[in-house]
Amino acid sequence: MDSFEINKIIAAILLTVLIVIGIGKIADVLFFVEKPKLSAYKVEGIDSVGSTQEVSAKTAKVVEAVDIKALLAMGDLAHGEKVFKKCSACHMIAADGKNKIGPNLWGVIGRTAGAIDGYNYSKAMKAYAKEWTFEEMNSYLIKPQAYIKGTKMAFAGLRKEKDRASVILYMNSKSASPKVIP
To answer: Domain of 102?
Structure first.
């Protein structure tokens, strides 16, 4: 093969690349599509600017504003039992139940966080050590990893208020001495 044929092959490849790029540019000019200013699908919980501390501070302010009486009034035990099926993959809720991936949740409302013997809690949960009240449980169930940084619980959370209220009522009912609903 002489140098003239090599030049023709290289020229053919370059011409093909230029034609493909040129067709793409011409198509962009002919079929111009204006991009929307706002995204069509907004992901909740993600700020374009802001640190995680700012986001958790905003979440804490929103959580404080929740009226627990009104929230629990939305709940329903039967609905809570259905929603709790999401939790049952990792948690058991029985009087003499075993710990699974997560701890047994029998009598969790009114119990201190990280207090079940025989379960290896994360350092963050042990350090948290607050009592699980209706308000605390509601705040935690919104997004566990945002509420207690460093928890092992890899659950996205329950966004719907009715779901959270129902699950809280259901968990409260699963106790030897359920707490009085406010």
So the answer is: 54-173
